[in-house]
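--- STAGE predict ---
source: upstream dedup step, 1 unique chain passed
mode: sequence only
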Amino acid sequence: MSKTILKKDLANKRLIITREFEAPVDMVWQAWTDPEILDQWWAPKPWKTETVSMDFRVGGMWLYYMKGPEGEKHYCRADYTGITPNKNYKGLDAFCDEKGNINKEFPQTEWNVTFSPSATGTTVLVENTFKEITDLEKILEMGFEQGFAMAHGNLDEYLAANLRHK
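--- STAGE serialize ---
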């Protein structure tokens, strides 16, 4: 299994995350853009992701929450700003309430997610850009690095199970 690699680019207020997945680009793309599949892997266990709504198009939004083992819910939204099918999507991610109203107490993150064929399947490159270095540090303090790596492990499991059924 592959490992999630996170590099801090403090000069540009960015996190650069790279991950190899052993599946073709179209399958990995679908796993990142189909709400039914996202719900199966996006949250680190024992948390679960539940999509409220998703409109995957430029100007559209994904509203979802992560539900914890005690039933607590943390809502997030992703506003899509650019999409090139099977290659890249961009968006602005934020914590919010159940109606999608952005919580200004938490930093917003610009996401730039690129999918490229590799020798073993697909390389996903995620560039997260922040307004301030303190925003980047706050996200890391909240456990982003470990949580995202755990979610990628969930995606490995999903892809492996679904490749067997093809």
